[in-house]
Design goal:
4-stranded antiparallel sheet, 66 residues, mainly beta, two-stranded antiparallel sheet, single chain
Length: 66
């Protein structure tokens, strides 16, 4: 029930380390093929419902644990 999704993850300095526009493509904790160290990252998700056109915007932190 979601269309036009955009999922972005940034490191603590604001560098984009991941972006996906697909529900089936998630982040595996890597950047340019290399595993990132355990750290706190920021995420931004925006999506639109195909049912009623409602827009969703979420931001927050995610901890990568190795």
């Amino acid at each position: 029930n979601v269309e036009n999704i955009n999922f972005i993850i940034f490191d603590r300095w604001g560098k984009k380390v991941f972006e996906s526009k697909s529900l089936s493509n998630g982040w595996d904790g890597t950047f340019k093929g290399k595993k990132l160290d355990a750290n706190v990252f920021m995420y931004h998700i925006s999506a639109t419902s195909i049912i009623d056109g409602h827009s969703l915007h979420k931001e927050g932190n995610i901890s990568l644990i190795r």
